[in-house]
Design a protein that fits this description.
By secondary structure, the protein is of the alpha/beta class. The protein is built from six helices and eight strands; from the N terminus they run E-H-E-E-H-E-H-H-H-E-E-E-E-H. It has helices at about 10-20, 60-70, 85-90, 90-105, 115-125, 185-190, and strands spanning about 1-5, 25-30, 50, 75, 130-140, 145-155, 160-165, 175-180.
């Protein structure tokens, strides 16, 4: 899914996605002053191309599109970017660039929450996790939401530590590295006089 796909940069991205053979490409563009259907006229004949004339500022419509297409990735290029226009009408900038972006992020929220990610990590590792941290990040060219889990085994002085990357939508474990804990936790727990 590409927002702003009828603009200068967005249309170039759509041409590239078609050249790379992506099966489905959804162009979300309301066609304001910066978007023009002629920039993607040739691409509109591509079998997997769809143009959805939806305003990213309309949360319900964005949620419906994301639900309908379930995109693997979203490249968000719809924005008010001309400085002169920001001086004349800052409300449009705030509405599109902040509210529109928020609507898109809210519509693409993750299926796997932090608690689920920790349970998946324990199952994958085969040991109970003690001290740990979970961080949601975006990874790769396709910008998938991924949980990064750093965990230690649950003994008083952990014998193992692990780092896992878990896809926040599919629950797939993308990477898992387990090693003996090289840290000297015993020394750090001793009191000094």
């Amino acid at each position: 899914m590409v927002t702003g796909g009828a603009g200068f940069i967005g249309s170039a991205v759509i041409r590239r996605l078609i050249a790379d053979g992506y099966a489905t490409i959804i162009n979300v563009d309301i066609l304001t002053y910066a978007g023009n259907e002629s920039t993607v006229a040739e691409e509109s004949g591509y079998l997997g191309y769809r143009h959805e004339r939806v305003d990213i500022r309309h949360a319900r419509e964005i949620r419906e599109l994301v639900h309908k297409y379930q995109p693997d990735a979203v490249m968000h290029l719809a924005a008010e970017s001309h400085v002169d226009r920001s001086i004349d009408g800052p409300e449009e900038f705030i509405s599109t660039n902040i509210h529109g972006t928020y609507n898109l992020l809210a519509a693409t929220k993750c299926e796997i929450d932090e608690s689920d990610a920790l349970h998946i990590a324990e199952k994958e590792l085969g040991f109970d996790i003690g001290p740990c941290s979970a961080q949601l990040m975006w990874r790769g060219l396709r910008s998938r939401p991924v949980w990064r889990i750093l965990g230690y085994s649950s003994e008083p002085i952990p014998s193992q530590r692990a780092v896992l990357l878990i896809d926040a939508n599919t629950a797939e474990v993308l990477e898992a590295v387990v090693e003996e804990n090289p840290e000297d936790w015993d020394a750090s727990t001793k009191q000094t006089a």
